[in-house]
Structures are given as C-alpha cells and as structure tokens.
Amino acid sequence: MTELEKLRAGLEYDFTAPEVDALKLNAVKLCQKLDAIDVTDYAAKEKVIRELFGSAGENPVVLPVFNCDNGKNIHVGDNFLANYNVTILDIREVWMKDIADNSLVGGIPAKLIKILPNDVGE
Prior knowledge:
The protein has helices at about 5-10, 20-35, 40-50; strands spanning about 55, 60, 65-70, 75, 80, 85-90, 105, 110-115. It is α/β, with parallel strands linked by helices. A two-stranded parallel sheet has the order 1-4. A two-stranded parallel ribbon has the order 2-5. Helix 2 runs antiparallel to helix 3 (about 40-50). The protein is globular. The relative contact order is 0.13.
C-alpha cells in the first residue's frame, strides 16, 4: 500500500512521501495564488477556486487568507463564502453527508454547530 493510499484510507502515513508532498505543495501554491489576486478581481479568483476545489457551485467567494491541505476534497454549493482567515483541513477523502444551507459546521468528523439566520432576501 502506498503512502497516498494509506492517507486516503485514514491510516498512519508518511507525510514526506513524494506523492503526499505533491498534493500539499500544489494546494499551498494555489492558496498563495488565490490570496495574491486582488479581492475585486472576482473572475480571476473564481478561476483559481475552481482549480483548487474539487467542485464549486455558482458565485464562490474566498477571502484572504485561505489555506487547505489538498483542495480537491472541498466541494461547495452556490454562493459559498469563506470569510477571512479560513483553514480547511481536507487531506482525506471522507464525505459524511450533505450540509444544509445556512449551517455552521466544524470538527472531525464535522458536526452541526448551529443554523445561521438567512438575512438575504429571497
């Protein structure tokens, strides 16, 4: 079993293995690229978000400073906002379940913290 297969299976793995390190370095470079783009250049930011994330709905917004382990394990819906100073530790490919709109989740495994009020008009 390769170190990458161990990582994906949730087993102990060597984070210095070249294939694991390559995932991390790619994410670091894309996060740096994303943070370096002017916050008003929405098209350029969206292009990098789509390159970094596994998938994104319409109008994804990620404000600086953003960090993640892999990026490809991040899947977000429409009107996603990662406000300032967000870190997502997404190194493993684990999908628990869909998360409802206006939900705040956290922890490993992710748990619902609270439902946020919808302050945007319908």
